[in-house]
Amino acid sequence: MTVETGGLVEQSKNNITTTVKHVNNRVRYGNKTEKKNRSYKKMRREVVFPRVPDVLQQLFVSCTQIFRGPGFVPPASDVNKLCDILDKMKPEDVGLSKSLQFFKPTGAVKGTPRVTYTTIYQCDQFSLCIFFLPETAVIPLHNHPEMTVFSKLLLGKMHIKSYDWVEPKDSIPPSKCEISIFFKSPNRIHSFIFDVIIIGLFFSLVVAVRLARLKANSVYTAPCNTSVLYPTTGGNMHQFTAVTPCAVLDVLGPPYSKEDDRDCSYYKDFPYSAFSNEGETTRVSEEEREGLGWLEEIEAPENAVMDRIDYLGPQIIETSY
Predict the structure, then answer these.
(1) Is it true that the peptide bond before 186 is cis, omega within 30 degrees of 0?
(2) Quick check: 200 pLDDT over 70?
(3) How far apart are the first and last CA of the chain?
(4) Could you tell me the CA-to-CA distances from 104 to 98, 107, 246 in Å, in that order?
(5) How far apart are CA 43 and CA 282, in angstroms?
């Protein structure tokens, strides 16, 4: 991860003000300044942050009043309150602008683009984070255990796909996997050892997958309404794919915590027909099948790794409320 610094120097009689731009994967903040006061032999350096926008401070204060810890779901009135605040937020409220180089089209993307994130604020009860996705970048399908999450797309166009678990777990169990997945050729000679391997794979797949209901599968363009997910509803497992360079603000209540057994899990999704026998498929209408899928928990994929940068936008004022 590389960080570069540069800026425009404006000189006055007694001091020099330098605009500092933070660069990481072409993510730039251009509104933090350093003032250097010169007086004979001594120079005093003072870091000056832009004034915190009212809407950002309001978001922080409301979060301190609303979130109560793992598994807590804010009442509808509080959810609406946070959504109203987030819906009013603009990129400039966190030091961003669509004119920044990061958000300009660059043509074909080479390799696997990395996602970058920055943390505006974090405590045990909630966190405020911004995720920067270059074009075609993906935040893979993942969950949010015991969390309520508000997502506000600030800039760009993004495809969001999300699921919730079907309850109870065995409501439509994958009792018979389509064996044809493994036996593609009727003329294949199956040895006893090969059969054992196939049966082992079959049962491991049956155990690994779980039925989920598709909640969202659409493209969103900023500015758009805030989306909300809950511990068991609202699309708790979601995947972000950047159609264009994107910036999305997430409010997580509470944040992830390995120490509190609230770590992130990743999944691979399959169509409903992949792990359902003919009888089960017949009992479920075509419309319902399109809204169902099987999720397999997997190890963290390569594109789950993100780069972190310092937040240099407007600073929240921490005050007791």
Answers:
(1) no
(2) no
(3) 38
(4) 8, 9, 10
(5) 79
Measured from the Cβ of residue 15, the count of other Cβ atoms closer than 10 Å reads 15
- The stretch 198-222 carries a mean pLDDT of 78
Cis-peptide into 223, omega within 30 deg? yes
Euclidean distance between CA atoms 195 and 184, whole angstroms: 14
Contacts of 285 (CB under 8 A, 6+ apart): none
Is there a cis peptide before residue 314, judged by omega within 30 degrees of 0? no
pLDDT of 66-91, one tens digit each? 999 899 999 999 999 999 999 999 99
- Contacts of 37-43 spanning 24+ positions with Cβ under 8 A: 38/14, 39/14
Q: Are 304 and 140 in contact (CB under 8 A)?
A: yes
From the list 142, 140, 141, 133, the residue with the least C-alpha distance to 114 is: 133
122: part of which helix (H) or strand (E)? strand 115-122
For residue 95, the tally of other CB atoms under 10 A from its CB is 25
User: Residue 290 has which token pair?
Assistant: 């399109």
